[in-house]
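Question (not urgent): is this output format expected?
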Amino acid sequence: MRWIRRHGGLMRRCRAISESLELPEPFDAAELIARLATSRGRPIDLIAVAARPGAPCGLLVTTGQADYIVYAEDTSALHRQHILVHEYAHLLLGHTSEPSPDPGLTGGLLPNLSPDLVKKVLGRTVYLEPQEQEAELLASLILKRALLPGGRTRGDEWAHRLSPLLGSRRANGPHD
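Got this back:
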């Protein structure tokens, strides 16, 4: 009960943001991010990297010229979509001023960036941090809407909505 009192406002805020978004049909996280870049008039580049032990699977880097979302490329399509939407949520929520984790974690992911810039990276690896919880909640609500508009779907519609997230399509489906 205490969690509900403490986090009720957070849930209401994230739900309101999620419900206000126009999601691409079929859902595609890269398209969702491209729409945000267009509306903000600021580039958001997606950078796929090989996952490394001990490194975050996703990372948001904000510079004066652009935002960069770095994500693990060698994971499932569903996990990749979740990583991208999680980092997108950080942008929507204005989480761009926190210090980065240990530069050793990000240096392996972003070897071409200076150590000074890495210190400015918004790279969060601990889900106990309030901004992480907020971004995770918003990402989950967005993905729930992408999969289950209205909270319910029939089996065929469920398979149709899930296939882009999993990186597959049904034979003879509407997008083939």
